[in-house]
Write a structure and sequence with these properties.
With 281 residues, the chain is α/β, with parallel strands linked by helices. It contains 13 helices and 5 strands.
Length: 281
């Protein structure tokens, strides 16, 4: 861990007992340093992450079925895409399984809500990334009354059972809930409207969703209270400072990968013999 972290990210960001209404979205839990420090540390720690991810991938190629799944949840403009570009973008793309979950297709709607999630789970040796996830079915679905409460209310237990199943199958879950302030979100939406190269990111519905902010806060509170478990804890990430968000997720992934105690897989051939063959080839 970098000397700039006074508390490991996994402890500083743990959601246990936290109230969504009390989150200081401009805070930088566990980190002592400014933006310049953070960007320097991110460059250093990105190399550590890349090395660990390569070991995970190499072990997967050798038959290890373990994987890591990063779940990113947050309101529009929270910075999920930036995490994918600047954190996941620093590792070998061959070892990444990425999925983004938007509005379900007609086919997906005909199945159980976890059907499309199961199809996108990371393979052995892969670092999986979910940009939104099965939690949309207790967030958007709940806030907009897309199904009755008796339906979405059962999903918390289904999600816990599903994530227990994943953990037992060797999937390490890193669940990150990203929170920005209303003011910061407005600033980021304005930037998308004022810069032509960002028009593609803008969705008029993002403005409409701001009216549901209190309902989303309560929905997020319930997922933190009801689905943060020992095998799949939630980490709450204040996301007004993009550099901090990226650094914190990097640290969470490093910690998760280090716990796997990865080693380079041994050769399934005789290296000395192959060197001799090479010398005479």
């Amino acid at each position: 861990m970098s000397e700039h972290w006074k508390t490991p990210a996994s402890r500083a960001l743990r959601a246990d007992g936290l109230r969504v209404g009390d989150i200081d979205t401009s805070a930088r839990p566990g980190f002592r340093g400014n933006k310049k420090d953070g960007e320097r540390v991110l460059a250093e720690r990105g190399k550590v992450l890349a090395d660990l991810q390569e070991k995970l991938y190499a072990n997967g190629r050798s038959g290890d079925s373990r994987s890591v799944l990063l779940i990113l949840q947050g309101m529009d403009t929270a910075g999920k895409g930036g995490i994918v570009r600047h954190v996941i973008g620093s590792v070998d793309p061959q070892g990444v399984d990425h999925a983004a979950f938007g509005v379900p297709t007609d086919e997906e709607k005909r199945h159980h809500f976890l059907w499309r999630i199961r199809k996108a789970l990371p393979r052995g040796g892969q670092l999986g990334v979910f940009d939104r996830s099965h939690y949309e079915d207790v967030l958007v679905v709940r806030v907009h009354d897309l199904v009755p409460e008796e339906v979405w209310g059962r999903r918390y237990t289904e999600i816990n059972d599903f994530e227990q199943e994943l953990a037992e199958a060797g999937v390490t879950l890193v669940k990150v809930a990203m929170f920005v302030s209303l003011d910061e979100q407005k600033k980021r939406l304005r930037e998308r409207l004022e810069r032509p190269e960002k028009y593609w990111k803008f969705n008029p519905g993002d403005i409409d969703e701001r009216a549901y902010w209190p309902a989303y806060q309560q929905a997020y509170q319930d997922i933190l209270d009801r689905t943060s478990t020992g095998h799949a804890p939630w980490y709450v990430l204040p996301a007004d400072a993009k550099w901090y968000s990226r650094l914190a997720v990097t640290e969470l992934l490093i910690e998760a990968l280090q716990k796997l105690d990865l080693r380079w897989p041994p050769a399934d051939f005789d290296p000395a013999a192959e060197l001799r063959r090479l010398d005479t080839a």
